[in-house]
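ARCHIVE ENTRY
Sequence with per-residue tokens
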Amino acid sequence: MSPRTACRPSRQAWRRNGRGRRCTGTSAAQGCDIAAALPLAPITDARAAAALVADLANGEVERAAVLYLDPQWRFLGRLDFAGSAAAVAPPLRAIVAEAFRLDAIALILAHGHPSGCARPSAGDIAYTRALAQVAGALDMMLVDHLIVTGREVTSLREAGLL
């Protein structure tokens, strides 16, 4: 499934270790090459978000990243996590702690499937729903969960799974 240009829900809809690696600021020395190239424009659709996490498709293990957005859905930071060949499950506590640190109101979760299959697993769906529930309870919104491969991107929001 390829991303559509209108995956952003309405404004009314949203009121190298286990802890991850921060990616904020613009310094390449911080390992944040992606942040240096980011415009201040809002991330308005799955395609724009997918461009920021395309690097997750590379590698032999599943990797995940969380993009943190302000109320206008502008990029505030990124937190990366590494998993195993078959799974990655970032700690919800680490995701939420970084959101509070950055004063983020919206999150985009993305992870790569090294297998090349962008279809979400039952575990992907369950984790997405758990993160959405936790974020909602804290007045944040999980905007989308993207599954990235070398050839395609699946948006769980567009698939009706979020």
